[in-house]
Design brief:
Layout (H helix, E strand, L loop, with lengths): L27 H5 L43 H4 L45 E4 L2 E6 L3 E6 L5 E8 L5 H10 L9 E2 L9 E7 L4 H8 L7 E5 L13 E10 L2 E8 L2 H13 L10 E2 L3 E2 L9 E9 L4 H6 L9 E4 L8 H15 L2 E5 L9 E8 L2 H11 L13 E13 H20 L2 E5 L8 E8 L2 H16 L1 E2 L18 H13 L2 E5 L4 E5 L2 H17 L3 E6 L2 H19 L3 E4 L6 E6 L1 H12 L3 H10 L1 H4 L18 E2 L5 E2 L1 H12 L14 H4 L7 H7 L2 H18 L4 E3 L8 E3 L16 E3 L6 E3 L11 H9 L1 H12 L1 E3 L6 E3 L6 E3 L6 E3 L5 E2 L2 H11 L10
Antiparallel strand pairs: 1-2, 2-3, 4-6, 4-7, 5-6, 8-15, 8-16, 9-12, 9-13, 10-12, 11-12, 14-15, 16-18, 17-18, 19-21, 20-21, 22-24, 23-24, 25-26, 27-28, 29-30, 31-32, 33-34, 34-35
Helix pairs in contact: 9-10, 11-12, 13-14, 13-15, 17-20
Length: 858
């Protein structure tokens, strides 16, 4: 018998050539996870996956087996707001995203402030006392606007696809030049028509436009309220930013393994969050197996809610090499998706609400189950409007794909790093309470140039953010140093860098507190633990009683100032040391002595006996050495304290001297300069205007805002013909005097009535007195007593005023039907009721007063 040898060759399903699908019905075995035919199966292996919004992404996991995988799991106690281990906890303590629906954990230390373009101020505009004020370099007031300067209209019946540009062109055709930035085209409620709101800084625009379009039947125009736009500001809760998110497309993935143990290990890793896909946690099924003992890929783990852009390499990357699957099959994405198209769609919808100042696209391949983008509007009201109109809007990419839009409220601060270090424990305590109310605190990296640290509070609840802002302001304000009687602790020696100031530094190091000297207000502020600050106050009070220093000022004449500049001040410091400082920002210039009366008398003798001719001779030989050195403060002429302020024009200041200098110049109501704050370097001759960006960089946020307000107050004092205060005590709202604007007054004798939006007091903008319903002349006559005398005389003579036009009428005889000679109104003389016709007046007299004549006249 002849036998034939037959060689049997077996190939796994994955090695076979895929065949064309001949049936669209789903494969039952594939759904169970054990189809042995793989790509050669004639039935469909395409799953249908719907987006899901309930799963919160976990932290990225490291693929290496030798790392502590607990660091990739979020701490359960931290999410409850009460992990006692703090930084020593082996589990993750992430900062949640301000959008609770689309939260990916972020790092505790945010990037430098310069990496946050949405936090940059726009236009340097502030609303102060009801006035929109734009500042320029040197905190100069460039422009002021009142609410009465704005007017607005709503244009309806526009074409359905109208845009800001098309509306601007329509206005131009009608003879009105309006920028597209002043136009808002909200999402349409009526598919057949569109509407647009136009608001510009022109008090007469709305009236003129309504009159010009009165006979235009193609559009409908009505006047609407025109609220004044609000400017940006540090330390004020503002809402210009929106967070947008939408579900990314997902897919299902099948992992095939040779053994059940390997499949179980991988399934356990994904279930625990130790393995992720593109940094995102996914759902897993239980391990399923094949009954075919010849199938080397008979054990399957199914992953669901996998990012659609994940590749096989992304999945393999998160699994240790020793237990990687033999085959990976990717399901079809839940919907077709293009990130660039989605970003463009969302951005365009936001711009229909209002112009954007800044926009950040959602990034492909990075993030959780939701794509997240951010935008910042130019006007504060647009963010709230966009959230109300667009939240829940269906993106055209998929019928079930909805856009989530949240208006974000925020407040920003900037404080010296040495203060932040000691108040950080107090902030961390409050941070847990803020998180419970979905308010998120972000500290940025401190600036290397000036030691300032930027802070931010952010959340979707304006009341919660405002409450957190108040708490943070209190922490950053510190505690004023007072003695047991409640009196302020201060001695003149605190203002100079002498032995007493060195004792302050020693006290800070010993107690772990920070002491800030406010030379302008002669006050100390303490920062740190409450018990340490209390102990510091006791030591500071003792220090003031031990110090016998007093403060003296020696005003300098021109010849004495030259003597001080060219060697005299240097000679004084060589004898008295740091007890002497030079005040070159005052008028006149001064030498300040902080010491005993004997020190003061010695300095006064040297200043009085100065010989300018000898000093100038020395100065010509070495002028550069006699002037202030680069390390010297341009204000006090002593070595600048660290961290010193270095201006772009090359001069140096102590931080305290710089702050005092800024306040002093901003508060100078007598100055006519266009730039109040100019550099005082080179003996006050530099005069380089300090830019607002430079001032904001070197001053704490609270101080910077106070300097702006001080400059504005100084500006209003110099222009009393324009700015007037509300007459109500303690109400600081301002209004424009009608004498300063021809458009605000219809005549020289009376002005517009201003109703204060803060206290509702009514006042005339011309005579600045409350007299609603009266002219200025009538009010003046009334308060002077002439009005009462005139009324008494008219009553005695039987003279009455027309109820309509106030024309005086005297009845000498005849009936009680009177006709005003001023306006022609028919008047009942008995009760002064008015009528349109004489018949109506006669009927009234017959009905109410028993005839048109008095009985005694008949």
């Amino acid at each position: 018998m002849q036998r034939k040898l037959v060689q049997l060759a077996w190939r796994p399903a994955s090695a076979r050539q895929p065949t064309e699908r001949k049936n669209s019905a789903p494969c039952v075995f594939f759904a169970r996870g054990n189809c042995r035919n793989g790509q050669t199966c004639l039935y469909s292996h395409e799953p249908v996956v719907e987006p899901d919004s309930t799963t919160i992404p976990m932290q990225d996991a490291q693929a290496a087996e030798n790392t502590d995988t607990r660091a990739q799991v979020i701490c359960h106690f931290y999410t409850k707001g009460g992990c006692l281990k703090g930084g020593s906890c082996p589990f993750a303590h992430p900062d949640p995203d301000p959008n609770p629906e689309a939260a990916n954990a972020t790092s505790l230390e945010a990037p430098a402030e310069s990496d946050e373009p949405d936090d940059k101020p726009d236009g340097w505009i502030r609303e102060i006392s009801g006035v929109l004020t734009q500042f320029g370099d040197g905190v100069a007031v460039l422009k002021t606007s009142f609410q009465s300067d704005f007017s607005a209209v709503r244009i309806s019946m526009l074409p359905p696809h109208s845009t800001q540009t098309s509306v601007s062109e329509l206005l131009s055709d009608l003879g009105f030049a309006v920028s597209a930035h002043d136009i808002r085209v909200p999402p349409r409620g009526d598919a057949a028509h569109c509407a647009a709101d136009v608001r510009i800084e022109d008090a007469t625009f709305a009236k003129r436009f309504c009159e010009a379009t009165m006979k235009n039947e193609s559009i409908k125009v009505v006047r609407i309220n025109a609220p004044m736009p609000r400017g940006s500001s540090s330390q004020r809760v503002e809402c210009k930013k929106v967070h947008c998110s939408w579900h990314r497309p997902l897919r299902t993935v099948w992992l095939n393994f040779e053994s059940k143990s390997m499949a179980a290990k991988v399934q356990a890793r994904f279930s625990a969050g130790r393995s992720t896909v593109s940094g995102q946690a996914v759902n897993t099924s239980e391990v399923t197996g094949s009954k075919n003992r010849f199938n080397s890929q008979g054990w399957t783990v199914m992953l669901t809610k996998v990012p659609a852009d994940a590749t096989k390499a992304d999945i393999n990357h998160t699994i240790p090499k020793t237990i990687r699957p033999t085959h990976i099959e990717l399901g079809k994405p839940s919907y077709e998706y293009d990130m660039a198209t989605a970003n463009a769609l969302v951005k365009s919808k936001l711009m229909e609400t209002g112009p954007l100042d800044w926009w950040e696209d959602a990034t492909a391949g990075i993030g959780g189950k939701r794509a997240k983008a951010k935008g910042r509007f130019q006007d504060e009201g647009d963010a709230v409007k966009a959230a109300a109109l667009l939240n829940g809007w269906t993106l055209p990419l998929n019928t079930k794909l909805q856009l989530n839009v949240q208006a974000i409220y925020s407040a920003r601060f900037k404080v010296p790093e040495r203060i932040f270090k000691v108040v950080k424990p107090a902030i961390e305590t409050q941070k847990t309470l803020w998180l419970a109310k979905h308010v998120f605190f972000t500290p940025y990296k401190p600036s290397q140039a000036n030691g300032q640290r930027a802070l931010r509070l952010e959340g979707a609840d304006n009341m919660a953010v405002a409450e957190a802002k108040g708490v943070l302001e209190k922490i950053l304000a510190g505690e004023a140093a007072v003695d047991e009687k409640g009196d302020t602790i201060w001695t003149p020696a605190f203002a100079v860098n002498g032995s007493v100031s060195q004792k302050l530094k020693n006290l800070e190091e010993a107690l772990g507190v920070t002491v800030v000297r406010n030379k302008r207000l002669s006050r100390l502020h303490l920062f740190g633990p409450a018990e340490k600050c209390k102990e510091a106050q006791t030591l500071l009070a003792r220090l003031t009683t031990e110090d016998a220093s007093t403060s003296h000022a020696i005003p300098l004449a021109d010849i004495q100032f030259e003597w001080a500049c060219f060697g005299g001040f240097k000679e004084l410091t060589s004898i008295l040391g740091q007890k002497v400082t030079f005040d070159i920002i005052s008028t006149p210039k001064r030498i300040l002595i902080t010491g005993t009366d004997q020190d003061y008398r010695l300095a006064l003798e040297m200043v009085t006996a100065c010989q300018i001719s000898n000093t100038i001779t020395k100065a010509t030989a070495g002028n550069s050495e006699s002037k202030t050195r680069p390390v010297d403060c341009a204000i006090c002429w002593s070595e600048a304290e660290s961290p010193a302020v270095h201006t772009t024009c090359g001069h140096t200041y102590c931080p305290d001297c710089f702050e005092t200098f800024c306040f002093s110049n901003a508060n100078n109501s007598n100055t006519k300069a266009d730039t109040p704050i100019a550099c005082a370097g080179d003996l006050g001759t530099c005069q380089h205007p300090l830019s607002l960006a430079e001032l904001q960089e070197h001053l704490p946020s609270r101080t910077f805002e106070e300097v702006l307000e001080t400059s504005f107050t100084s500006h209003t004092r110099r222009h009393p013909e324009t700015f007037r205060s509300c007459p109500t005590p303690d109400c600081h709202h301002l209004y424009r005097s009608s004498s300063s604007s021809s458009s605000s007054s219809s005549s020289s004798s009376s002005g517009k009535i201003f109703t204060c939006p803060q206290c509702l007091t009514i006042v005339c903008t011309a005579c600045h007195a409350p007299h609603k319903g009266m002219t200025c002349a009538e009010h003046i006559d009334m308060v002077s007593g002439g009005y009462a005398a005139l009324e008494e005389t008219k009553k005695r003579l039987g003279i009455k005023d027309c109820p309509k036009c106030k024309t005086s009428i005297e009845k000498t005889g005849g009936c009680n039907h009177m006709t005003c000679g001023g306006c022609g109104t028919h008047i009942c003389w008995k009760c002064l009721e008015t009528f349109a016709t004489g018949k109506q007046c006669n009927d009234h007299l017959n009905r109410k007063h028993e005839g048109v004549f008095d009985i005694e006249d008949i």
